[in-house]
Amino acid sequence: MRHRRPRGSRRAPRRRRFRTVTTLLAVLVAALLVRTFVVTPFSIPSGSMRDTLDIGDRILVDRAGYVFGPVDRGDVVVFDGTDTFGAVGDSHEPTLRDRLVRFVTLGLAGDVRTDYVKRVIGVGGDRVACCDPQGRLTVNGKPLEERRYLYPGDSPSELRFDVRVPEGRLWVMGDHRSDSMDSRAHLGDPGGGTVPEDDVIGRVVGVVWPLDRLGGLS
To answer: What is the largest distance, in Å, between two alpha-carbon atoms of the chain?
Structure first.
């Protein structure tokens, strides 16, 4: 005599599969929301921020912080330089790596050719100048103490300048001053080398890879 399988027994595996799929989708959506609005991973493409950040470092960028507060002097930020600094290096077409990064991150990593990482030296209204008699940068007439992050052997700037940062814009520089195409390199461009605050993607909070460089930025 054949025993009939209870009707509910066929539905149980389907319910489990449905719950599993639903859970995975919820995790994916949560991860995408976090990456879009909270933190996003980026990779450092050049040596312009050495030794604070080195080539190939994987960093986490806080996207939400500036929603609740202003960009501060000294912050290390990632910004979209499409309309100000242009593409990084001489590349005009996205590489296979660029396409893979954008595919894997569903486009949330931005355009790796136009995303820059620099330190904010001056904010809207500041007068940034180089240099005082001791060779230091000054902001509003006060010298900056940069030994904590300036690349060993570099001077604050070989190029002399004296700029007033427009409201809503930023003056940014790399920590490796002798190897950084930053605001100084765009003094003759519209905006005088400054970057709109609206182009800032977020603040760098720390390095997550490689492990021997793991840590936060002060």
So the answer is: 103
The structural domains of the chain, with segments of one domain joined by +, span 1-37, 40-216
State the amino acid at position 148 in one-letter form: R
Amino acid at 56: G
Q: What Cα–Cα distance (Å) separates residue 115 from each residue in 3, 74, 111? A: 66, 19, 6
d(Cα 133, Cα 216) in Å, to the nearest integer? 34
Q: Are strands 137-139 and 127-130 parallel, antiparallel or unpaired?
A: antiparallel
Region 106-132 average pLDDT: 82
- In the 8-state DSSP scheme, what is residue 159? S
Confidence of residue 214 (pLDDT cuts 50, 70, 90): confident
Cis peptide bond upstream of 51, omega within 30: yes
pTM of the model: 0.75
Among the listed residues 62, 69, 53, the one whose alpha carbon sits nearest the alpha carbon of residue 35:
62
CB 129 within 8 A of CB 61: no
- Per-residue pLDDT at 136 exceeds 50: yes
Q: Which residue has the tokens 């940069």?
A: 146
Predicted local confidence at residue 89, as pLDDT? 52
User: Which residues are annotated as catalytic?
Assistant: 48, 118
What is the bridge-based pairing of β-strands 58-62 and 115-122?
unpaired
Question: Which token pair is 44?
Answer: 């450092």
User: Using CA atoms, how far apart are residues 156 and 178, in angstroms rounded to an integer?
Assistant: 9
Topology, domain 40-216: Umud Fragment, subunit A (2.10.109)
